[in-house]
From TrEMBL:
Species of the source: Teladorsagia circumcincta
The UniProt record lists the keyword Transferase: yes
Protein name: Aminotransferase, class III
Residues of the signal peptide: none
Family assignment from sequence similarity: Belongs to the class-III pyridoxal-phosphate-dependent aminotransferase family.
């Protein structure tokens, strides 16, 4: 379920943080990082038990619908389509990279990337730039093969409009 589990590390990370996709935020860490005194982080949702209920349901659906394994299969297809997109538009797209659906591509510069984003949005693809000249992909766990096909069809159309 955690990205670091795909990297076959010799030991687990010192600390892991998470948020957004699990509808709550949190962290866990190695025992030697535990503080001597308990404390509470102050924030807007501090102590809101409904967030724990939502998290429990999210984890339940992930397990029930086998979303981790489904995402692995969809991710393989996604990476294949990402490579095809780069091959078909090599003058505009480079550095296709990622693991599964957690991915990014680069453009020659921010201007080209921003033009692509505008055209893709106008075609109906929800997307946005990242960093200096990248487009990142972080779809939800329910993202399926049909969504991959829609994504890359729209990206191809947007790139052809540049």
């Amino acid at each position: 379920m955690w990205a670091h589990s795909h990297w076959n590390l010799d030991s687990p990370p010192d600390m892991v943080t998470f948020s957004k996709k699990l509808i709550t935020g949190g962290y866990y860490y190695k025992e030697n990082f535990r503080i001597k005194e308990g404390y509470r982080i102050y924030n807007t949702w501090m102590g809101d038990p409904t967030k724990l209920f939502l998290l429990e349901k999210v984890v339940e659906v992930i397990k029930r619908d086998d979303l981790i394994n489904k995402t692995k299969l969809v991710g393989e297809y996604f990476q294949s389509e990402l490579a095809n997109l780069q091959a078909n538009h090599s003058s505009k797209v480079s550095q296709a990279r990622g693991l599964g659906t957690f991915a990014a591509i680069d453009f020659p510069n921010a201007s080209v990337r921003d033009q692509l984003v505008e055209k893709a949005i106008n075609l109906g693809l929800h997307c946005g730039g990242c960093g200096e000249k990248s487009l990142r992909f972080r779809p939800s766990l329910v993202y399926d093969k049909k969504h991959v096909e829609i994504t890359f069809d729209l990206l191809d159309k947007a790139l052809k409009q540049l």
